[in-house]
Amino acid sequence: MIGFGSVGRGIAECIAEKGLDIEITGIADSRSGVISKTGIDIRSVLTKKQETGLCGEEGITPEDILERAEYDVLVEVTPTDAVTGEPACTNIQRALEKGAHVVTSNKGPIALKFSELMRIAEENGVQLRYEATVCGAIPLMHTLRQGLAGNTIQKLYGVFNGTCNYILTRMADEGLTYQQALLEAREMGYAEADPTYDVQGIDAAIKLVILANAVWGLNKTLDDVDRTGIDLLTSDALALAEREEHTIRLIGEILPDEGVLRVSPRILNKNHPVVVRGTLNAVMIETDMAGEITLIGKGAGSRETASAIISDLLFIRDFHAGRS
Amino acid sequence: MKLEIKDMPGQLVAALRPISDVGGNIIAVIHQHESATVRTGTLGVQIVLEISESGLSELIRLLKAGGVTILRIGEERMLIRRSFILIGHLMHTDLSDTVDRIDSTGFAEVAELTMMMPAINEPTSAKMIIKSESMEGLLKALEILRKTADQKEILIIEPLEEKQ
Fold it and tell me: Which chain B residue shows the shortest CA-CA distance from A158?
């Protein structure tokens, strides 16, 4: 496992708690690392991390883990760099080239180098899975690729960013201004000190790019997304919408036939299934056979993201491990 | 729609009542005493109304049950309505010009405009309802609105189109 922040620790905690027949043989954070062929004692690493800020010995790097540890799957959970995708791109590529499967929550590599990485995975007969990159705990990728196999996905849209959804919920409920709601979101730990990435719709746009490329092979980049954030919204606008049993949500939308990817605040009926409250995410999938499917769940969080990573790990174990 | 009713007292009311019963909105009623298409002893009445599609089929059923003959149901016009929310310096960027650009098209018009007096440090917010004869007209009007908003630095919040 490379990356031992909130997501990495969440995965480790869940594995320590539940077993699941998963052994962790190497962990690296940004400053240290630990390797064990027979399996790391996860609880002691978690304690060490909590007490010292380090998961292992200084001097053991992600490169050491990639090259020296014994692993079937690399779990890449370093923070997203939406511009370069590094260091995750390099980490993922190296693991794939060594013939290891990769599971990641890092949006950078999947949004920027999807087709290249998938080609490398295929050449090496391994899997690259990324359920955790879109909508946290919601099994969206699995639903689209396995659950709805054979369906034509005509349209996909919904709430892809919990921070924006929280802000809009509070503006509508309490008549808060955008600034007030943003400050509150920060205090609650839902918004970063620099909220640009969330409130200008960049995070949601990256998720659309990942979906467009993974589900439809559209070869899109962030520049292809028609994007408007929520930072110019007024409490008056919310009040105008609410007067008629409508509300405003930041909606990400993919119209695959027209090749349209769009993130923008939209007016929706309050009882529309994707109008969720607080930090929840919601996705509506319109298909030809299954009709409409709505998925609602937590889009972020340590254990929630761990759920997505672990489901990918177990999917690889059950359907791919040992085949090559 | 054009109806044929019996030339007897109370018949016009009998023909109009079902319209409000099904939630329709009567815009105009035009009597045609002399019409080539109607039989003797009957009257031709043209009614312009706003009604939902489901309301229309119910109305047709009620009219037929009440002995009214429907001669013709005309084209729908200005029946497609969409609400938008506009945020920006609406007054200082010539609101009447913004409205004119839609109204002057002939195929769409601004049917309603509700403005909120802005809170301190906030730009003006307004709800605009555009109506059009057809979906095509509405989309064209939306293009004009988008272009105008772009020039005047107005943010438009559009409704999410739901599956019909």
Answer: B160
